[in-house]
Amino acid sequence: MQLVCLDLEGVLVPEIWIEFSKRTGIPELSRTTRDEPNYDTLMTFRLGLLKQHKLGLPDIQKVIAAMGPMPGAREFLDALRRDYQVIILSDTFYEFAMPLMAQLNMPCLFCHQLEADTNGFLVAYHLRMANQKKEAVQRFKELNFKVIAAGDSYNDTAMLTEAHAGILFRPPQKVIDEFPQFPVTLNYAELRAEINRAAQR
Known about the structure:
The chain is α/β, with parallel strands linked by helices. It has helices at about 15-25, 40-50, 55-65, 75-85, 95-105, 130-140, 155-160, 175-180, 190-200; strands at about 1-5, 85-95, 110-115, 120-125, 145-150, 165-170, 185. It has a domain at about 1-15 and about 70-110 and about 130-200: Rossmann fold. Helices cover about 45% and strands about 20% of the residues. The longest helix is centred in the N-terminal third of the chain and has 14 residues, at about 40-50.
């Protein structure tokens, strides 16, 4: 049985923090792990900014719901789910992703959780576990699934390496240069063709 594991941001939906930064007019929220490698420092900074600008979870979810998936993402995913078991493995949070999941026909999603206070302000985040994408793929393999994984960035490469077949989707050039072992796809038709090829091997 084949199982396809997909990253979420950059593959099916826009980068949530960058898009959220644009839509709220708060440029500091566009900082990512490329700017701040310490994830705890970055998330603490983000949560502080949200509180400073009096943005609670309902405000954030409303903005995220208006983003929508990437063009063609739902059609690609619907077709893929007809032929394969599909799980989305993401480092985002359920509270952010669920408005977008509804627009993607509610695929199965494994990610992390946020904690809000009684006023709706975010006060903490809780990781499911460290390296959850790689760990999940490892467990799926132990369950005798043939795992095909696709993602777009550095935080996906451990998952792609662990899978039986790893595929890059619209990656930055530096990721292509550093991980030449993975085929590169630039649109959903190419990604689907590469998944099919990997499934037949």
